């Protein structure tokens, strides 16, 4: 599905079903340097279970035009403009990593438009290691290697793929290698600079779920629990033996967690 936001082309996946704005809508927001393909399983599942699914490539990512937006706040406002283009009055938001910060900020800034919120691999603060920032700024392949090494838990490092012959960390690197120069650094810098999670959490009034990986080195589960405590009536699910890249590493468990909310 193709939309235009701010006069620029936006590629949006719909989970393999025609988009119907009259159905309850779910918007999936990907993380730094990634694209809509990380949502393949949950997007398809919910699209085939009576939901209207939008999984956009954020500006400058995947098949979407333009450059990347450089702050979490700008991305949050962009999500609402995407909703306007899709003629959605309300939607549930599901975000992973940077996308979770965007979803959180959107719910805080535009609460009347958000009916539910699922935050995956998130923490009150998400500082980025200087070595990773520097590698991303230099468009050095080391940035992809660092992200996959830190991002995957035991299953990624020691052969946890359910599909025979699949290589989780290799697949993660291949996806990051598709990113345009400068985009990953812009995303990581936006995460590093964002200081508004605690303030945003206090404003969230919709049903909220936080999904955490027990072995997440990038956004540790204990940090996610602190954010959950700041959101009224938020629920938590921790996926055992799982790192930050839960959608690839533990896809079934990630979907099961989302089903408890959506």
Verbal overview:
This protein has one domain (2-127, 194-259): Rossmann fold, CATH 3.40.50. It contains 12 helices and 8 strands. The protein has helices at 40-47, 72-85, 98-109, 130-137, 142-151, 154-157, 168-177, 183-193, 197-203, 221-229, 246-249, 251-259; strands at residues 2-5, 8-13, 25-29, 52-56, 91-96, 114-120, 208-213, 235-239. It has an 8-stranded mixed sheet, with helices on both faces. Helix 4 packs antiparallel against helix 5 (142-151), helix 4 (130-137) packs antiparallel against helix 8 (183-193) and helix 5 (142-151) runs antiparallel to helix 7. The protein is globular.
CATH class equals Alpha Beta
Query: How does the helix and strand content classify structurally?
Result: alpha/beta
> Largest sheet, order of strands side by side?
1-2-4-3-5-6-7-8
Number of helices, where a helix is a run of at least 4 consecutive DSSP H or I residues:
12
Note the run of SSEs as H and E. EEEHEHEHEHHHHHHEHEHH
- Percent in helix: 40-55%
For CATH, the homologous superfamily is named as: Alpha/Beta hydrolase fold, catalytic domain
Overall average pLDDT:
96
Question: What is the rounded Rg?
Answer: 17 Å
Number of domains: 1
The largest pleated sheet is described as: 8 strands, mixed
CATH fold description: Rossmann fold
The CATH architecture would be 3-Layer(aba) Sandwich
Instruction: Please give the number of β-strands.
Output: 8
Strand content: 15-25%
State the shape.
globular
- State the end-to-end CA separation: 22 Å
Contiguous uncertain segments of 5+ residues: none
């Amino acid at each position: 599905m193709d939309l235009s936001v701010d006069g620029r082309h936006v590629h949006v996946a719909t989970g393999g079903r025609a988009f119907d704005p009259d159905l309850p809508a779910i918007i999936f927001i990907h993380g730094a340097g990634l694209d809509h393909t990380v949502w393949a399983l949950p997007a398809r599942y919910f699209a085939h279970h009576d939901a209207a699914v939008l999984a956009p490539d954020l500006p400058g990512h995947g098949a979407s035009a333009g450059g990347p937006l450089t702050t979490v706040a700008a991305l949050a406002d962009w999500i609402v403009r995407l909703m306007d283009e899709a003629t959605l009055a309300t939607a549930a938001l599901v975000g992973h990593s940077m996308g979770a910060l965007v979803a959180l900020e959107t719910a805080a800034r535009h609460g009347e438009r958000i009916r539910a919120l699922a935050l995956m691999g998130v923490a009150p603060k998400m500082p980025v290691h200087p070595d990773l920032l520097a590698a991303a700024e230099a468009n050095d392949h080391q940035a992809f290697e660092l992200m996959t090494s830190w991002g995957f838990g035991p299953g990624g490092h020691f052969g946890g793929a359910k599909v025979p012959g699949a290589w989780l960390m290799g697949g993660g690197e291949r996806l990051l290698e598709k990113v345009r120069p400068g985009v990953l650094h812009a995303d990581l810098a936006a995460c590093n600079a964002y200081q508004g999670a605690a303030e945003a959490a206090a404003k969230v009034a919709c049903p909220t779920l936080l999904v955490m990986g027990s072995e997440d080195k990038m956004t540790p589960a204990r940090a996610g629990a602190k954010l959950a405590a700041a959101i009224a009536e938020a629920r938590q699910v921790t996926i055992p033996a799982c790192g930050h890249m839960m959608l690839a590493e533990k896809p079934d468990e990630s979907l099961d967690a989302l089903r408890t909310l959506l």
